[in-house]
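Lecture notes, part 5. Sequence design as translation. It can be helpful to think of inverse folding as translation between two languages: the language of shapes and the language of residues. The source text, in structure tokens, appears below.
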């Protein structure tokens, strides 16, 4: 079992937003990210069933009344399924939305398992359409970040780079608390939000980075920022308005391009990929683009950081002009690793040669690692990638 910092208790109070602490000179509320901040993470969606267990005895609680409906033993693993408007734990049936929480939240052995993975806090089970089940992990913000950092970067990285990742991940979480509101939770556990592996992925070193920066976020003029990050920028980060349409009318200083000479030893600083025209066309069709037989591919324009602006594809039914980021997603971001590439075609095969991995906006994770190895503090690292920003414990 991984060591857990002492005096860190997980609250189960169903609160999902930071509490205003005070007002600033302009009369605006100042918020603070602290241990009272609770976050809900969607870890499994629309499953036919899951297996629930725990390190200690746990309770099944009615989500509407807060009443304890049953006490379950830690000696068993319970099969969870939905049917007839109910949720079943083995043969016992409950309402369509219940909370699973440890009987003793203050015990060191208070984590709950879902399909063999351990999670802190409580687990919410929701019946979905077609008798499927969704699983939500409700826990304290800092405990959530403990499960993010070792999934997003190497847990053996220098402590200052882990601290930088912790602050970035915390900032991202608070800025995006409403991202999955319609789904009944704040964030998902995938790359769509941030990769979250629960308590099973925690390490002593990454937890240390989280707790030593507890409550700290990145601000610009006092406001919490959109703290995007990526694996490797390959020399320059990217202006955000070159990546996402929602930023095309603006380019915040803190998300503008900066030079980075620190990620050159990253495994995917240089990469190549080849793909048959037929396979490329199939992927475009799967992404919703109507294309015929591919005839040629070429790139159009480059941003100031060297990334491609658009891709022009000639095919038997006409031409497709597509933003480079959308093209990358259609091909799969693990294949076309960035939009900093050139492409050559021969015998109905496209050959890509590129640099870096990710969208390029915000903090370069591999750069942060090497900056820390060179003696940079986590605050200095963050101030480099997010120009004009500060690391603070309060924000508006």
């Amino acid at each position: 079992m991984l060591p857990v910092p002492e005096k860190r208790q997980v609250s189960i109070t169903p609160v999902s937003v930071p509490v205003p602490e005070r007002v600033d000179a302009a009369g605006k509320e100042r918020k603070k990210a602290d241990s009272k901040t609770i976050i809900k993470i969607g870890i499994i969606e629309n499953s036919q069933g899951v297996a629930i267990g725990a390190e200690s005895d746990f309770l099944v609680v009615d989500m509407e009344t807060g009443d304890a409906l049953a006490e379950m033993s830690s000696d068993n693993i319970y099969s969870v399924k939905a049917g007839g408007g109910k949720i079943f734990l083995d043969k016992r049936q409950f309402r369509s939305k219940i909370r699973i929480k440890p009987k003793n939240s203050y015990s060191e052995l208070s984590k709950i398992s879902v399909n063999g993975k351990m999670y802190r806090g409580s687990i919410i089970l929701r019946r979905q359409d077609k008798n499927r089940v969704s699983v939500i992990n409700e826990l304290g913000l800092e405990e959530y970040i403990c499960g993010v950092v070792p999934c997003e970067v190497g847990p053996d990285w220098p402590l200052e780079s882990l601290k930088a990742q912790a602050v970035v991940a915390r900032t991202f979480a608070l800025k995006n608390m409403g991202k999955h509101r319609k789904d009944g939770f704040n964030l998902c556990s995938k790359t769509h939000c941030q990769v979250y592996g629960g308590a099973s992925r925690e390490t002593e070193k990454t937890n240390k980075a989280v707790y030593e920066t507890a409550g700290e976020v990145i601000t610009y003029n006092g406001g919490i920022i959109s703290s995007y990050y990526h694996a490797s920028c390959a020399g320059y980060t990217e202006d955000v308005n070159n990546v996402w349409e929602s930023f095309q009318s603006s380019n915040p200083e803190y998300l503008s391009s900066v030079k980075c000479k620190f990620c050159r030893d990253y495994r995917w600083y240089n990469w190549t990929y080849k793909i048959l025209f037929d396979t490329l066309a199939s992927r475009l069709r799967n992404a919703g683009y109507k294309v015929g037989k591919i005839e040629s591919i070429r790139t159009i324009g480059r941003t100031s950081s060297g990334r491609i602006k658009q891709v022009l594809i000639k095919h038997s039914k006409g031409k497709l002009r597509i933003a480079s980021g959308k093209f990358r997603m259609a091909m799969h971001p693990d294949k076309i690793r960035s939009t900093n590439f050139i492409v050559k075609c021969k015998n109905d095969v496209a050959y890509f040669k590129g640099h870096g991995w990710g969208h390029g906006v915000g903090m370069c994770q591999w750069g942060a690692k090497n900056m820390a190895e060179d003696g940079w503090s986590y605050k200095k690292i963050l101030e480099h990638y997010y120009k004009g920003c500060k690391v603070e414990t309060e924000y508006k």
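The translated text above is only one of many valid answers, since several sequences can fold into similar shapes. The first helix runs from residue 141 to 152.
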